[in-house]
Design goal:
Number of strands: 5
CATH architecture: 3-Layer(aba) Sandwich
Radius of gyration: 16 Å
GO molecular function, one term: 5-hydroxymethyl-dUMP N-hydrolase activity
Protein name: Nucleoside 2-deoxyribosyltransferase
Number of helices: 5
Strand order of the largest sheet: 2-1-3-4-5
Distance between the termini: 6 Å
Largest sheet: 5 strands, parallel
Helix content: 25-40%
Pfam families: Nuc_deoxyrib_tr
Organism: Amphritea balenae
Order of helices and strands: EHEHEHEHEH
InterPro entries: 2'-dNMP_N-hydrolase, Nucleoside_deoxyribTrfase
Shape: globular
Strand content: 5-15%
Length: 175
């Protein structure tokens, strides 16, 4: 991509739930700088939710993340399956939000399996629902969103800080 100077990237994914989330976010932002981008991690906000009840705290976090995405040109989403066979639902929303704004979307996953291989069954699951089988790493809408402007880089690696950063850096190199 030409003219990447001053391009800002929203760093999406379930990384915010990791025990070392702040460290992972800082490492990704440092890699962004190395490649001439400005990285923005969802935990970067100076949001004070202390004293708020859970629901208003959640709404405040949502709005803070929307504000960060509005200022970014690109999203790189960690699409590694999270709490199930598919990617984190919040990350999926963030990708959709950025797609609606016609921003650049890239993703990566540390799980190299096809989405359909992560679900028990062949044509249908245990409840009789059809299993989406399009030789894609995740739901077709998520893969489709990335294909127009980037793509999804998949690897078969354990979920460690080092592996996240290695695959994330490969995405930055492709940008």
């Amino acid at each position: 991509m030409s003219n990447q100077q001053n391009r800002s990237i929203y760093l999406a994914g379930p990384d915010v739930f990791w025990p070392n989330a702040v460290e992972l976010g800082a490492a990704k932002k440092a890699l962004c700088l190395r490649y001439g981008f400005s990285g923005h991690f969802p935990l970067d906000t100076e949001l004070d939710i202390e004293g708020l009840q859970p629901f208003p705290a959640g709404i405040a976090i949502y709005q803070a993340n929307i504000n960060i995405m509005d200022c970014c040109d690109i999203i790189i989403a960690n699409m590694t399956p999270f709490r199930g066979p598919s990617m984190d639902v919040g990350t999926a929303f963030e990708m959709g939000y950025m797609a609606a704004q016609q921003k650049i979307i890239w993703g990566y996953s540390l799980d190299g399996q096809l989405y359909s291989n992560r679900i028990e069954g062949t044509a249908t699951d245990q409840d009789g629902y059809t299993i989406e089988s399009f030789d894609m790493a995740d739901n077709l809408m998520m893969i489709g969103a990335t294909e127009n402007s980037g793509g999804v880089l998949t690897e078969s690696l354990p979920q460690t800080l080092e592996n996240h950063l290695r695959v994330f850096e490969k995405v930055l190199q492709q940008l």
